[in-house]
Amino acid sequence: MDLKEILSVTGKQGLFKTIAHTKTGLIVESLIDKKRVPVYPSDKISNLEDILIFTEDAEKPLKEVFKLIYDKENGGKTIDHKSDDKKLREYFEQVLPDYDKDRVYTSDIKKVFSWYNQLVENKLLDFTEKPEETEAAEVKEAPEEKKPEEKTEKKAPKAKKVTESGAKKE
User: Fold this and answer.
1) pLDDT value at position 93?
2) Is the dihedral of CA 48, 54, 60, 65 positive or negative?
3) CA–CA separation, 139 and 137 (whole Å)
4) Which of 7, 14, 30, 136 has the fewest CB atoms within 10 Å of its CB?
5) Which domain holds residue 98?
6) 59 three-class SS
């Protein structure tokens, strides 16, 4: 799963997938209605890869929180983001028990569940690892060292003998 191409745009509902880069911004496609719209540098854009959730000790990347929800739900949808605030917080605490209750607002939790459900609906979450491909990508064979070429003496071309008649012989 690559969250680098998935964006949240302030003032626009839902998530967007990057389609193309232009001179003046981006062309994105809504995950909700599949409409393509331009996004300009003046718009506030958040890349899901860069979003962190506050915990008591540090910050946890959103991708890891999605993985925890994915594991809890066996890859299915989670609680509706329009549920009661108390239920949302209880569920979020089950998923991420050490989240910072003072700095993570209910609106943040609603976004996490809403985004997760949109990604699941669009089949953009896949946490299954393919060990063969992962290992192959990580292990690159070192190029073989070239052996120094053996220096061989070049023999001078044979001199041709000239006979008395002036004809050349080898």
Assistant:
1) 94
2) negative
3) 6
4) 136
5) 51-127
6) strand
